Amino acid sequence: MYRFISGPNTRPGVRWASMRRKRKFVHTRDTSRISSLHGGLEFNASQNPDKIALIEAQDGSTTTFGELDRLGARIARGLLANGVVPSTSPVAICSDTLILGHHTIGSILGALKTGNGYMPVSTVEAPERLKTILEDSKTPVLVLAGKPSETVLAIGAQVGTKILNVEELLVRSVDTDLAAWSTISEGTPAYVLYTSGSTGKPKGVVASHGSIANRLQWMLKTYPWSEGDKAMFKTQLGFVDHVWEVFGALSAGVPLVISTKEARRDPEQLVSQMRDFDVTRLVLVPSLLRAIIEIVGGRPGTLRRSIPKMRMWTVSGEALPKSLASEFLAASSCQKGESRPILLNTYGSTEVAGDVSSYEIISDKDLDGIPESSELVPIGKPIDNTTIHIVDQDTNQSVPHGDIGELLVTGRNLADGYLRDPHRTSQAFITVPPESTKAFKTGDFGYLTDDGNIVFIGRKDMSVKVNGRRVDMLEIEALCRNIRDLKEVAVVFSGPGGPNSPGAGITIFAIGEGLTDYKIYDFLKTRVPSYMLPKHVFICKGALPRLPNGKTDYVRVGLPFKDEHSPAYPYFAQVNRRSVLSTNGTGALLREEWIRALGVPEDLITSESNFYELGGDSLSIVSLTASMRRALNR
């Protein structure tokens, strides 16, 4: 038995099983490595410069690998000419003005070529958050398209970040030997992605070329691309899944279709573009997969017939319900002799290069072995060169086979830590015997099945996934405490029908004289991105429920809103209850579908109700539209 050996950042009580007990761990084999995030793209540019790399769905225009590599080199030289020092701080890339296109990928490539890596930021949402990120990262420049707003210019001046237009970079590009300026190794930072943090301050995850290259290499080897394959780029840059979307295809030398802005908001347009451009692979969250299945009709074979070229669906960012996997299998059924598309359920986080395990679903047999007690598809087994340990959350000792424990990840996928934040880094990234191995405490819980697959069951903290992005409720709480007149606040993920209802979302319960839901919403709007804004705000009287130790009782706070002990949502109180939708014909059907889509009590739906204020979003709108069309046979 390996026992605790004292060392820097090593937690007392850590104990690892010997080789006799390796059945309690999930191991994978070693593989050859690729050296950098953009190395595959550069290789394809040198070998097949005239091959198409990018296809823009907006107008059908294309960019070859050679053109893309030259664009990246010109932007890199422009950055150097503007004072960027190689291998120092990340280059900020505006994810709003650089609408997903060749300039977006060219700017990312340019930042990588300088040896600095890139850091996506939003200049439209939450200016206070932008200021915090630029100040925290000490980024020298922010690259954007078009004329920057006065707010962005002011923030740049305050924190010492130069605001540069991508066109200016191309004009000021000079003939410089990039290889002589920067040295890129596996340990060189490739990107910084800021995620939600419990202190009220976002944390920047620093990922090296080696960590993300291992993720790319595993996917390229396990699921090799074929001639005729096409991927689609539709994920916002702030979400880690964009890394595989972009560099998976470009490393393999296959075209990347860049979706339009409208398609990224409207799943119906996304389906249309996937079909029009013969897309074969897509990365998406389970909620979007459900919306797509509903759009195509949800009947046997409709998904296959609607998007015939699709052969691989990779779901990530949220837990995959077993029921949704069954719907996918039915909707993607095909004729005898045809190959069925793959549904790949992946698990991970920004701190582990996006994904560290996977579970493949091709037929009903892949669902038969799932424990009856589980409503979720397993997250599977680790990818190459990683290990997932199932341990006691307090002692970090391995738990008996089949017992529930915290998932602890070791291996090449691990990020370096949190940028300029040694305290939070030491809390999340610990070292363990033997040989002071670096490990990441995920905060996720699961157990190991007899066939070696891991089943995810939940988290230990106050963070949830919202549209695939990790959001810490405590960060929102910490920000709310800066609101004048606010005395108490609790933030949970819940809804009118409880935390698992269709209308569930980030919900704020606040106490304070003079507070309004709009005041809280407007305060947060300048400080957090849109996906972190609340769906529901309750202004309460009295006090929030407490545990015996005086702490907030989040279980009682998160009870369904219709519970008699829950306060009334301000919007509900303003509804004219007499103006009720008709109980006959289309009105009755519409009410029924609203109840299904939102999970709200029937008496809350009137002719004056606002779908979005009741917890609806773009995906639930798609679901509502699809079900109404089926009901009306249109």
TrEMBL record:
Residues 581-634 form the Carrier domain. It holds the Pfam family AMP-binding. It comes from the Eukaryota. InterPro entries: ACP-like_sf (IPR036736), AMP-bd_C_sf (IPR045851), AMP-binding_CS (IPR020845), AMP-dep_synth/lig_dom (IPR000873), ANL_N_sf (IPR042099), PP-bd_ACP (IPR009081). Keywords: Phosphopantetheine, Phosphoprotein. SUPFAM superfamilies: Acetyl-CoA synthetase-like (SSF56801), ACP-like (SSF47336). CDD domains: A_NRPS. The keyword Phosphoprotein applies. PANTHER family: BETA-ALANINE-ACTIVATING ENZYME (PTHR44845:SF6), CARRIER DOMAIN-CONTAINING PROTEIN (PTHR44845). This is Carrier domain-containing protein. The lineage of its organism: Eukaryota, Sar, Rhizaria, Cercozoa, Chlorarachniophyceae.
